[in-house]
Amino acid sequence: MPKKIFSLADARKLARRRMPRMTFDYIDGSAGDERACALNVEKIEALRMLPRVLVNVEQRSYRKSIFGQTWDLPFGIAPMGMCNLTWPGADAMLAKAAREYGIPLVLSTMASSSIETTAERAGEHAWFQLYVGQSEEVAYHLVERAETVGYTNLILTVDVPEIGFRPREHRNGFQSPVRIGPKQFFDFAFHPHWSLLTLKTGVPTLANVNIDGGKKFQRNEARGKVDWDFLARLRERWPGNLIVKGVLGCEDAVRIRDAGVDAVYVSNHGGRQLDSAPAAIDMLPQIRAAVGPDYPLLFDSGVRNGEAVIKALALGADFVFIGRPLLYAMGAAGYSGLQEMIELIRSQIDISLAQLGCTDINNIDASYIIDNPLSENR
Ligand SMILES: Cc1cc2nc3c(=O)[nH]c(=O)nc-3n(C[C@H](O)[C@H](O)[C@H](O)COP(=O)(O)O)c2cc1C
């Protein structure tokens, strides 16, 4: 099959055509006027990198380790809820790609595939992301299930005390489970490929949170209970690596580090929460300076290509996660779209290392960024 995706814009355009408006807007949309989302991308794009010349770059490596595990690429798949709304079978595609490309896949609490199924599909590539609703017991039960089937990396997301107000979701009447009124009916009818496949494979449900007896976790319920005391209790209960996601402040990052957490995940949730949040990339160097040179930092929000991955690493991240681009790719062309997108970002990283005169991605540091905030002689 001829290739379709040569840039992020290609994937987004194709996805927009193939997906119903409601589900495209669910993945593409952000909070408020969508400024935080746009700013994430703009601020990364505005960063300029300094090439070094006359370096033999015939051999290049972009493998990266985190928590003692080495990955074939320096990026992983960010946790995203209800991916199967992008394209039927998306969760399974992500798990397959995680194995094929040797990258981590973070399964969301809000996924349409269970903790157990994803462990089977992705093996040691699978990490688990936890949301805590009104009931701590439900959260601990999820964590125990993850531990039982062998997950070793747990990400607690803390930037969703309430779901952000995303105008496009409200305008389209987006709900979970999906409710079909006349507007949605016409939307689906105009996208028969997506709709028929979804009918055939089954309308996606929240596979992790609605199967247990007792109190269930609803998408719209407040998640504001999570506080420092909860973090301490979770730290005691979870024996594996614990990561806190959705951090933008230096003081918070330091306090999380001091609470015995293994890594801070710098992110503004792709601009889906607080529209006036800073661009995540702007906070990354400050957080790196605050937590010290050796403390693990993960990063996402606004990464759209391989150069962006390198820029985040240069400004202090140890590992980078990619969100929307992978969803656009599956919306555009299913599994082959996902392969094309990962392959594209991989080759952009590889080619950029050559342009920068750098043979090993582990040698990328702040000196590759012009006017970087981490440099003392700015
Ligand atoms: C459709 C969608 C669903 C998401 N669901 C979750 C989730 O369930 N848990 C979570 O921690 N983050 C979730 N996120 C945020 C991503 O993990 C990540 O922070 C964000 O996509 C980064 O922004 P970017 O995709 O614009 O680069 C979601 C993002 C999208 C686009």
Question: How would you sum up this structure, described in words?
Answer:
- This protein has about 375 residues and is of the alpha/beta class.
- The protein has one domain (about 10-370): Aldolase class I (TIM Barrel), CATH 3.20.20.70.
- It is about 40% helix and about 10% strand.
- Strands 3-10-9-8-7-6-5-4 form an eight-stranded parallel β-sheet. Strands 1-2 form a two-stranded antiparallel sheet.
- α1 (about 10-20) runs antiparallel to α14 (about 325-355) and α13 (about 305-315) crosses α14 (about 325-355).
- The model has no long low-confidence stretch (mean pLDDT about 95).
- It binds flavin mononucleotide.
- The site of flavin mononucleotide has 22 residues, from α2.
Write out key terms for the chains shown:
14 helices, two-stranded antiparallel ribbon, alpha/beta, TIM Barrel, 8-stranded parallel β-sheet, binds flavin mononucleotide, globular, 378 residues
Order of helices and strands: HHHEEEHEHEHEHHHHEHEHEHEH
Q: Strand portion, in percent?
A: 5-15%
Enumerate the strands of the largest sheet in spatial order, edge to edge or round the barrel.
3-10-9-8-7-6-5-4
Number of helices: 14
Give a count of the beta strands, DSSP E runs of length 2 or more.
10
Please give the domain count: 1
The radius of gyration computed from the alpha-carbon positions, rounded to a whole number of angstroms, is 20 Å
Oligomer: single chain
Low-confidence stretches: none
Q: Which small-molecule ligands are present, each listed once?
A: flavin mononucleotide
Structural class: alpha/beta
- Major sheet description: 8 strands, parallel
CATH secondary-structure class: Alpha Beta
- What distance lies between the first and last C-alpha atoms, to the nearest angstrom? 49 Å
Reported by name, the CATH topology is TIM Barrel
Give the overall pLDDT as a whole number. Answer: 94
CATH architecture title: Alpha-Beta Barrel
Helix content: 40-55%
Looking at CATH, the homologous superfamily is: Aldolase class I
